[in-house]
């Protein structure tokens, strides 16, 4: 316990002697939090248009889609037949992301993914344990 107190006091003295380090440790995180928070507060991340490809159409996938519909951040535009239609809708600017659910019993079972387009790049998020 004494060593922990000594370490704390030594680090505190170091920060007080070097104000630049103190500023970096205290003010920069506050600044970044304010910048990110203002993005959510002004509505930049609301009503993101999403499409759905649901090969299984099970109760669980419908519940996930309904949860996205209820969220203030997403606007589920509709269902699409396959991933080619989704890609075309993204190219046309109708949607900015999609939910893709594989068929039940397929080799990719459990590989549902949330796909988003950002700055012309495709990004995949594959949640575990779905």
At a glance:
It contains four helices and five strands, in the order ααβαβαβββ. It has 130 residues and is α/β, with parallel strands linked by helices.
β-strand percent reads 15-25%
Give the % helix. 40-55%
Cα separation of the termini:
44 Å
The topology string of helices and strands comes to HHEHEHEEE
Question: What is the CA-atom radius of gyration, in angstroms?
Answer: 23 Å
Poorly predicted regions are: 117-130
Strand order of the largest sheet: 2-1-3-4-5
Compute the number of strand runs.
5
Description:
This protein is an alpha/beta fold. Helices cover 47% and strands 22% of the residues. The chain is built from four helices and five strands, in the order ααβαβαβββ. A five-stranded mixed sheet has the order 2-1-3-4-5, sandwiched between helices. It is elongated and about 65 Å long. Residues 117-130 have low confidence and may be disordered.
What's the SSE blueprint?
Elements: H1 2-17, H2 19-41, E1 48-54, H3 59-70, E2 74-79, H4 83-92, E3 97-101, E4 113-118, E5 121-125
Parallel strand pairs: 1-2, 1-3
Antiparallel strand pairs: 3-4, 4-5
What tags apply to this protein structure?
130 residues; alpha/beta; 5-stranded mixed β-sheet; 22% strand; disordered C terminus
